[in-house]
Amino acid sequence: MIGTTAALIAGAVVAAGSAAYSGYVQNDNAIDAKKNADIQAAQVRDQAAKQADLIRQRGDRVRAAQAASLAGSGVDLNSGTSGALFNETNRLTEQDALATLTTGERQADALERGGNFAAVAGTSAAVGQGLGFLGQGLRTYQGYVGSGQNSAFASQITMDANSMYSRTAPKYSLLNGG
Question: Residue 95: its pLDDT value, please?
Fold first, then answer.
């Protein structure tokens, strides 16, 4: 009985250690995935900001080229068509820059949501491992208790059987009259 008990306890300890380590690794991997997603999101935002700055610089160059061309033609740069042209160039340049920033922000948000999902999934997996360990521990305990009750029941049956076989038959004899 002690050997069976020790084996059950050892099995439960090994299962507990395995479940705890597995849950720890899954949670640790989820934390790493979240950190990596946050780093990638920051990189995407930085890249979008740099790209927007480049778009604005190109817009400045286009406006300068327009101004040079118009001035070379003798057009007044402060009024009329030239003013409308510069305003339209400014508007389109800023629209492109903002679209780039918006796209970068959306991509970064998607990366962060993926990292958050990974963190939640890792935590859930760790909790699941813990619950699985708890369930395994309960099953092991029930098996241990059940085996003890079954052993006691089996011992009782064995004792009843032995006492039945050890009884001696009554001494009746039809011939002796007794």
Answer: 96
